[in-house]
Amino acid sequence: MTDQNKIPQATAKRLPLYYRFLNNLHIQGKLRVSSKELSDAVKVDSATIRRDFSYFGALGKKGYGYNVEYLLGFFRKTLDQDETTRVALIGVGNLGTAFLHYNFTKNNNTKIEMAFDKDPNKIGGEIGGVPIYDIDELERKMDRISAAILTVPVSEAQGITDRLVTSGVKGVLNFTPARITVPEGVRVHHIDLAVELQSLVYFMKHYPLDIDDE
Ligand code: ATP
Asked: So what's the ipTM on this one?
């Protein structure tokens, strides 16, 4: 595994984005890409891209750009694309159901292996090929699951998180508005869709993009 400690966190967060785009280029048979092309595609300014890529040991040549194959090789190693991370989803409501239908493995290395709910009408079923188990069986069923997606009602979020952590989960993607508390060493990424949408509208209103700058 490449020494990831050298890559700043902000850069590391953009890695999957770069990886997905470069993978598409590779599939199309493209051998190289300029920072301008990348910048337009992933919506990150080219100065940031150049800085990010210097951490990857990729130095773009003027008039040539970056070698797609080299970068993909680096990303695969860094993101551990060969090893799939097993993920569980808790709460098969509207949002949870959509995620189960969404094929996460298309572009990367994560797979939702199992889902949990408390609704007897959902338990025992399967959505998108993912089995839905009784939440009461969480501790028994969770096997080598290191990450979890949380799509339960807000009131359930903390209690279920505690159980996930006890079961060995090291990362939680929290889609509930709850601010959950976890022990040190467990990572929580919080995605509140309502807040994101509000924030988008706020920025659209107050910071309109000046198309002349493009
Ligand atoms: P739906 O219309 O299917 O109820 P929703 O997203 O509007 O979807 P929510 O009330 O947010 O419903 O609940 C999301 C899902 O979480 C539901 O499927 C619900 O059965 C499930 N759920 C609620 N409490 C728990 C719990 N303690 N453990 C596991 N799953 C739970």
From this structure: 0.93
